[in-house]
Amino acid sequence: MINTPTPHNGAKLGEIAKTVLMPGDPLRAKFIAENFLEDIVQFNSVRNMLGYTGTYKGKRISVMGGGMGMPSIGIYSYELFNYYDVDNIIRIGTAGSVSEKLHLRDIVIGLGASTDSNYASQYNLPGTFAPIASFDLTSSAVEKAKENNINAVIGNILSSDIFYNADKTALEKWRSMGILAVEMEAAALYMNAAEAGKNALCLLTISDCPLTGESLSAEDRQLSFTEMMKIALEIAK
């Protein structure tokens, strides 16, 4: 444990709850705090990566932006786990559907996170590491989705370093291996959690279907995100 705040987080030790909800967009973190939490206190504004702590149904919860891509969430989640004594991080983001099982507004629970990233090379492992979610958080999310009649599909997602891929066949190749959806952060989050002995889960809302060209409007995305937020809030410990 090093001294806090860090170069990326202005919070002092104890100002962040044991469970952190982490959307990519810091303004989404602000929306969650203002619309779902009570007695909120802002703990971070460094680099405009907004973070708040409050209560939800009596539970102390924090919410903080994680940015775009594995380098960004890699920094923030590492510091939360290792410097701020956070036990659980639940990423709540958007994804592009790769599977015919998924449609716009569906929820994906990322049981595993395949990746085209080189993030795991830092561990110098004698093989390939499989980034996976916390079983406890995953099972709780599945149960909460069922209780609320939310269509949630559980399985393997792709965390990609590339948004505009020069290889136009890449998604079809991943699809052939059973990948459900593509996003850009979960694998790094899961690896950081594994190294720290902590818990992580990625919940995603399908906002577009790259292989068919379908996508949600801004208003639709707002409504769909709310369902995902509620699941995350309910399973927070």
Compact overview of the structure:
Residues 19-232 form the Nucleoside phosphorylase domain. Helices cover 30% and strands 28% of the residues.
Structure description:
There is one protein chain. The protein is of the alpha/beta class and 237 residues long. It has a single domain, classed as Nucleoside phosphorylase domain (Rossmann fold, 3-Layer(aba) Sandwich), CATH 3.40.50. The protein contains six helices and ten strands, in the order βαβββαββαβαβαββα. It has a five-stranded mixed barrel with strand order 5-8-7-6-9, surrounded by four helices. Strand 2 (38-44) and strand 3 form a beta hairpin. The chain is globular, with a radius of gyration of 17 Å. Homohexamer; trimer of homodimers. It holds the Pfam family PNP_UDP_1. Residues 19-232 form the Nucleoside phosphorylase domain.
Q: How much helical structure, as a percent, in the residues?
A: 25-40%
Number of helices: 6
- Level-1 CATH class name: Alpha Beta
**Count of individual domains:** 1
CATH architecture: 3-Layer(aba) Sandwich
Biggest sheet character: 5 strands, mixed, barrel
The helix/strand class is alpha/beta
